[in-house]
Specification:
It is an enzyme of class 3 (hydrolase). The chain is 26% helix and 20% strand. The protein has 235 residues and is an alpha/beta fold.
């Protein structure tokens, strides 16, 4: 049975890296001693080593060891042997590019589908969807495909933002951009607000946190999904 936590962000305002979600992660990774970290998205272009250190410090608070996938000669085997996996945020285009470059897309999907606990934040959550096409990131590289892991039957728009009342900004809102996506695509999109995450156990998907999530379907009025309830029946 697959087990995932798919979080909108790694850091919420006023707290440290992963701090807001460490209590549920302690339970989620209860049987895991060492977590394999995939740092390919590397926010701000930081090195894999530096990014892995950030993850190590966070997980040390719940007595978990972290090792970066880049430290292994064979990333496929590292994934197959992993007790638990964490893919961090950053640039989704670069993350997907490196997953294809290292030929580990299928291996990662198969490993998580078979029950290895998986945590994704931001870009690491975007890749859980059918495609990465609802990322907010700049296309700094061009991956071979936008197809991602398909661990859930919809796409994620992480860091979803509602329009600010009274704002003079004339650019497109997130909702507008998702509607543009649905002119050409059928896949549903879930806007995950900051501090929200999905807990996936087999076919069950529960929205966690204190906020609703906004569901977009082609040619349908967007719907607010309530927190702490199963949402899989919407897809």
């Amino acid at each position: 049975m697959k087990k995932l936590i798919i979080a909108s962000t790694s850091t919420v305002h006023g707290s440290g890296y992963l701090e807001y979600i460490l209590p549920p992660l302690s339970t989620f990774f209860k049987e895991v001693k060492t977590i394999l970290f995939i740092p390919y998205a590397r926010p701000g272009g930081i090195s894999y080593d530096d990014y892995t250190e950030i993850a190590k410090k966070a997980f040390n608070k719940i007595d978990k060891r972290v090792i970066g996938i880049h430290e292994f000669e064979n990333p496929k085997e590292a994934i197959k042997q992993a007790e638990g996996i964490f893919t961090g945020g950053g640039n989704t285009f670069e993350l997907v590019n490196q997953l294809y470059k290292n030929d580990i897309v299928d291996t990662l999907k198969e490993t998580v589908d078979s029950g290895t606990p998986y945590l994704g934040t931001s870009a690491g959550s975007n890749i859980c969807g059918v495609t990465m096409m609802n990322t907010n990131d700049m296309p700094i590289v061009y991956p071979p495909s936008f197809k991602t892991l398909g661990l859930i039957p919809f796409n994620i728009n992480a860091h979803y933002l509602d329009p600010i009342k009274g704002s003079t900004h004339m650019g497109e809102t997130r909702e507008t951009r998702i509607k543009e996506y649905h002119v050409f695509n059928e896949t549903a999109v879930l806007g995950l607000r900051e501090g929200s995450w999905l807990e996936v156990k087999g076919e069950s998907i529960v929205l966690k946190g204190n906020l609703t999530a906004r569901l977009f379907k082609k040619d349908k009025t967007p719907v607010e999904l309530e927190a702490n309830k199963e949402i899989n029946n919407w897809f």
